[in-house]
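Example record for the data management plan.
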Amino acid sequence: MRVPKRIFFILLFGCLFAVVFFAVLKTEDSFEVETLFGKVDVKEPIVQELLHSEVMRRLRHVDQHGISYYADRHGTFTRFEHSVGVFHLLKMFERSLKEQIAGLLHDVSHTVFSHVGDYVFGQDVSESYQDGIHTWYMKQTGLDRIFKRYGYTAEDLYPERAEFAALERSIPDLCADRIEYNLHTAYAYGRLSLADVKDIVKDLRYENDTWYFIDQTSAKKLAQQSLYFTENFWSHPKTVVVNIFAAIAIKRALELGTVSRDEVHFGRDIAVWSKLKSSEDSVVRTYMRLVHDPQGHFAVVQEEVGAWDLYVPTKFRGVDPWVQINGKLQRLTSLDRDYFLAFMQLKKKMKKGLRFQFPQHSLNPHGHLLKSITAQEAFNAVSLGIVSFAENFLGVVRPNEQKQTQ
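Corresponding structural encoding:
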């Protein structure tokens, strides 16, 4: 009896599918992920499913350093690389699976260009916008359906929960998040080698809800990175002003409908970057030009000197690790006077924030005069959002308003 060709091919493809399916199942029993700290063996089904989710794949296309990377093309890494590094660190120190998952997902709610979202949507640029929308974001993207299959909720995995003491702590303490991004940024900028990173982690311990070092030299080597990058990158005037310029461009694009809120929240950097770069709107084009070339288009003024146009609070990210000496934990600042002085000096500097002046020709694409504003107006401008600031104080007007002023 001959089997019809149609049935034969159905059976053949069915067998091939079964072979491939079971082969995949077999390889997915365990797979390796590369992190800053080496390879980590992932066996947990929920972690495997999350790593394959679209939400985590998206983080491969969200830069850790945000708009600064696209402006300067400096050394960098992605939010995905950072997140799996945090996961790996928590796994290395035998934290609970629940905390490991929270660490893996702690940055999923970042907008495109990372902290530019603080300026676009946030009410206070000294806080992270993504933290406030984290639970909402996990529900919007369907992660909660994955959680449900394994007995978790989105609220269970909020990274700021008190039970996740290894994952998140307040400054100046160490936490897995802070350890990873300090070491990873230092490695990306060539300030630390992989061997340096390995040695530092070798001297780390986690006990009684506290990260500490057993070697003072390793503690200082990590801590110095936090001061260096706070002053020279994360809270540097150029970084802040580039974020402001990018935020104004994004706000304008949102107004025009050329970029959507969903694209900013759920999209990838390069897609939004391409739309901003190809915009024909004069305001968007002006601010994108300033993103690339901000020098000469802003000045930082001291608190006691003259008028300024915008005040922006700056975040102090300096760490003061615990070090175990003769069985007792002591702060690095109590052991090393040079580090104490550098730590306190930078902390005082960051507390002052940044006061910017913007030359009239730089920020007025329609030729409007720049208005000087008081300190209170500046605080209000920040709290109202960058679009209000741009319209009210930088002379940015809509096309129909421009006609009325000519």
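Summary line stored alongside the record: Confidence is low (pLDDT under 50) at residues 7-13, 15-27, 364-406.
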